[in-house]
Specification:
Residues 6-133, 173-301 form the ADF-H domain. Keywords: Actin-binding, Cytoplasm, Cytoskeleton, Repeat. It comes from Coemansia brasiliensis. One of its GO terms (cellular component) is cytoplasm. The protein is of the alpha/beta class and 338 residues long. The chain has three domains: 8-133, Severin; 148-173, no CATH class; 180-304, Severin. 36% of the residues lie in helices and 22% in strands. It has helices spanning 11-20, 49-52, 89-106, 125-136, 143-160, 164-173, 180-191, 255-274, 293-303, 310-317; strands spanning 8-9, 25-33, 36-44, 66-71, 77-82, 111-117, 196-202, 207-214, 232-239, 242-248, 281-285. A six-stranded mixed sheet has the order 1-3-2-4-5-6. Strand 9 (232-239) and strand 10 form a beta hairpin. Helix 5 (143-160) runs antiparallel to helix 6. It is elongated. The termini are far apart. The relative contact order is 0.08.
């Protein structure tokens, strides 16, 4: 089973996890190797769940992400994703984009808890207790969580009251949340440390993921970075003062994908704006190969806002419209000597 990133789950991992249900296995560790998620190692049960967690931090590298499937003290499992801060950006994006694929391939129903961490200690007994305390707390919702609650309410309302006005409101407001790596990529983009972010929708987990985040060396590289058969969103610094939002929707993509990406396009721009990214120019196209340096230059030049005062100056120098002469009337001429 493969995600749009092309990463699948190996048969060996699938078989080992299936066998682990009937064996005294506490942890199954997996990592992305090449084009698939492979079994790394397993750890047997030695005590209770909390006690056995003490073995997990020693399994983790300071630079390499991994998935940890940890049996709870029941027939259910914890799906943990470990992505260290020192991991390469591409690895972070691949693990975020492939997580839903792994869970679905192994069986979503087996996983009762979902945990994310960036340091080995996050998966220690104490780290797990902190995670549970946070999950079980009755702390007030953050602004982001409140916004997501409002979005879910809007979606529910739109489903139950399918009037034209409610559908328009729903489409204009619809947003999928960003996964952690997509958020990190947009923060880097807002700071100007990278100039290109390619975003995609992971429909299975209903999140926006960053497929690529890097700095391109020239406009000529842009077209090759955008999928030719799948819709995508692009944020790109055209220059130090102009940000482009490109919505690419190839004609070869499925009708469903085209509808989903069209629906959530505006919401993504709203999210980017809230993160400090001022989108200056929005472009739409159905073939990424249209993007050439000359085409970009022309689009930016034709859509760029004039400098303050430039419009007034242009108006002052523009010839005034000359009223056409009434029919059958000769132009007036001055009499000789006047």
């Amino acid at each position: 089973m493969a995600h749009q990133s092309g990463i699948g789950v190996s048969d060996k991992l699938t078989a080992r996890f299936r066998d682990a249900h009937s064996e005294p296995v506490r942890v199954v560790q997996a990592q992305i190797v090449g084009e698939s998620v492979e079994l790394t190692t397993t750890v047997p049960q030695q005590g209770g769940f909390i006690d056995d967690l003490a073995q997990v931090p020693a399994m983790l590298s300071s630079t390499e992400p991994s998935y940890l499937l940890v049996r709870l003290d029941s027939d259910k499992w914890l799906f943990a994703t470990y992505v260290p801060d020192a991991a390469p950006v591409r690895s972070k994006m691949l693990y975020a984009a492939t997580k839903a694929t792994v869970a679905k391939a192994l069986g979503d129903s087996y996983f009762a808890e979902d945990m994310f961490g960036t340091t080995p200690s996050d998966f220690s007994p104490e780290g797990y207790r902190l995670y549970k305390a946070h999950e079980d707390s009755s702390a007030p919702l953050t602004e982001r969580e409140l916004e997501m609650e409002r979005i879910r309410d809007l979606e529910s309302h739109a489903a139950s009251a399918p009037s034209i006005d409610s559908r328009r409101s729903h489409v204009a407001s619809a947003q999928y949340p960003l996964d952690p790596n997509a958020e990190a990529a947009l923060r880097d983009f807002a700071r100007g440390t990278i100039n290109f972010v390619l975003l995609a929708i992971d429909a299975a987990s209903e999140v926006v993921v960053a497929s690529r985040a890097e700095s391109l060396q020239s406009h000529a590289e842009l077209a090759a970075c955008i999928p030719k058969d799948l819709p995508s969103y692009v944020l790109y610094w055209f220059d130090s003062s102009t940000t482009l939002f490109i919505y690419s929707c190839p004609t070869a993509s499925s009708v469903r994908n085209r509808m989903v990406y069209s629906t959530f396009r505006h919401g993504l721009i709203v999210t980017a704006t809230q993160m400090g990214i001022n989108v200056h120019i929005r472009l739409e196209l159905d073939d990424p190969q249209e993007i050439t340096p000359d085409w970009l230059e022309e689009e930016v030049r034709s859509r760029a806002q004039p400098e303050p005062g430039a419009a007034a100056a242009a108006s002052a120098t523009k010839p005034k419209f000359k009223r056409p002469m009434p029919p059958n009337r000769r132009p007036r001429t001055c009499a000789p000597g006047t």
